Amino acid sequence: xxxxxxxxxxxxxxxxxxxxxxxxxxxxxxxxxxxxxxxxxxxxxxxxxxxxxxxxxxxxxxxxxxxxxxxxxxxxxxxxxxxxxxxxxxxxxxxxxxxxxxxxxxxxx
Length: 109
What we know:
The chain is of the alpha+beta class. It has helices spanning 15-23, 27-35, 63-72, 74-83; strands at 2-10, 38-46, 51-58, 87-88, 100-102. The chain is built from 4 helices and 5 strands; from the N terminus they run βααββααββ. The chain starts with a strand and ends in a 7-residue tail after the last strand.
């Protein structure tokens, strides 16, 4: 199992819409997340800075392959088309990233 954290900005005028979307995530999206070997997935919002922090645990053996399958899923693409206009990627993210991946510096069970 691999713990993963990521961060992205949220446009101030989209905060309420983003909260509403995630209060009622489409069932197909939840199923795709599970099919992609992602568990314990949470997104946190820090206001007033409007930063989103995402955390998940990846339990598979081919992260790149699982993420490619998720990205190819038409319903996931529909979900992203609704969510992505709400988000403001960090200028410092790595090339090819939307959410900026983070390094774990501490963990305690």
